[in-house]
Amino acid sequence: MAQEAFGSYEQVKANSLAMLFDQDLCIGCRACQVACKRWNEREPLYEIAEHPKLLESRQLATGAPGYAGSPITSFTNPQNLEAHTWLTMKFDEFGEGDTLSWLFTRVSCMHCVEAPCVYGCPTTALWKYPEGPVVVRTDLCIGCRNCIETCPFDVPRLNEDLGVIEKCTLCADRIANKPLALGDFEGSTASPRFSVKQIHPYSTWNLLEPACVETCPTDALKWGPRDEIVRMAREKAQRIGGFTYGIEEVGGTNVIYVLKRPPEELGLPKVYKERVSERTERLVSQMNAIGIAGLMVGAFLGIVKWVGERKNQLLKRSGG
Question: So where does this one cross the membrane (predicted)?
Fold first, then answer.
């Protein structure tokens, strides 16, 4: 899908909205998890799952019988994302005894400004709205898992019952009156057009914050223009001697963290800083360079071989 359909990278980066997760204020109450489930009508994980693959994914998500085959040693619950779990809070312990402390880390879609999953989707089922959300159009999804492979944050999950990908929508229906799934698709996948039907009755001047932001009791989640969120994140990180995550990762995201410890200590993926388009161009250029070098080497070896054969022919003639 062409990025121009939603404006240039710089326009989206400058004009979109963003969420701030402030780890310094998070108390691990999981109210955000509950709000996400309630608003998006996601099934609880304790409901019986008939599909064996769905049951397996739910066992991984709940940690039963042991997350990734290991004993459950964390209070994180659910322990992983799943088709019906778009947000979970990761619990980490640091220190022992009197020095023991807890840190809680949000695990969900980061909503990249220039999303690799959008570029990797062959059916344009993934959309990047100018307001910030990256949304899956389930009516176009074929369950190919390309987005799972391309996501640097390991977020998308396959709904085994429906055969489609599901993930956090950044509450696109709340923040911008955007549809989450639509039928009656018109036009080609190269130039998609569709009618807005499934929306919530909020006017442009009466839009809501994402459900998790609205329900957070400690103001650990904030919502606003991305430029302002970036400024707030940098100021807070500097004040507490902390770290930011999402300002530069993958060229920038619409969910930004302020962390009290380095991201890698909290289990967050270490991802590249380039925009996906820049990264692709660089890799293509490198492959082209390798191809050209290979052709030159092949040509050189061909010349050497020809010279050697020609020399042998001349020696045979002179000897005869």
Answer: 289-308
pLDDT for the residue numbered 146: 94
Known binding residues: 26, 29, 32, 36, 109, 112, 117, 121, 141, 144, 147, 151, 168, 171, 212, 216
Single pTM value for the model: 0.74
DSSP for 196-245?
--S--S--TTS----HHHHH-TTS-EEEEEHHHHHHHHHHHHHHHT-EEE
**Domain assignment of residue 59, yes or no:** yes
For range 13-37, the mean pLDDT: 94
- The binding site for [4Fe-4S] cluster comprises 26, 29, 32, 36, 109, 112, 117, 121, 141, 144, 147, 151, 168, 171, 212, 216
- What's the domain range around 319? 276-320
Domain end among 266, 288, 306: 266
Let me know whether 319 and 206 are in one domain.
no
Kindly state whether residues 41 and 9 are assigned to the same domain. yes
| Rounded Cα distance, 49 and 206, in Å | 38
Q: How crowded is residue 62: how many other Cβ atoms within 10 Å of its Cβ?
A: 18
